[in-house]
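I am writing to request your help with a piece of structural work I have in hand. A protein sequence and the structure tokens that stand for its backbone fold form the material at issue. Please examine both parts with care and let me know of anything in them that strikes you as inconsistent. The record follows directly beneath this note.
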Amino acid sequence: MAILYNNDICVVLDAQHRTPGNLRAFVQATLRSVRTGKSSDVRFSSTEKVDVVPMVVTKMEYSYKDGEDYVFSNPETYETVTLSSEIVGDAKNFLVENMPVAVTFVEEKAVSIELPASAVLTVKDAPEGIRGDSANNVQKPVTLETGITIQVPLFIKTGEKIKIDTRTGKYMERA
């Protein structure tokens, strides 16, 4: 969610409700400013009121990388949005052309993206598995088309398409 804090719109990244034994309950929250992009830890007492700012989630597709920025387009209106690498974060490891993503906007400004649960990526470089190494669930490192290196079973070869869990970054199955 997004809230108004110190006359600035902030996205709540994490929130925990705490009740220490001898103190009043409070909420410990990690906020990221939409204007500056800086994160901070804030403690709210149980009596404080916060103003919630509406957030809009739009389905978009990844188009291309422009220098350090990433360009997304709306498939219905063909409007493009350019996001910095800080907003994209670790999602850059799984972005391939025309991949559908959910972009969250707060007051016309993109604040975060959400990937689908899994992505199909092509193996760019896979070393050969060592013969006789199949007694247990042995895995080998491979490099994918986005540049990320993950562990996969020995039978995966260069050029194959595999399905990756975007939340954990782990191999799921062949695609």
Remarks:
- Residues 2-53 form a domain with the SH3 type barrels. fold (CATH 2.30.30.30).
- The CA atoms of residues 59 and 102 lie 5 Å apart.
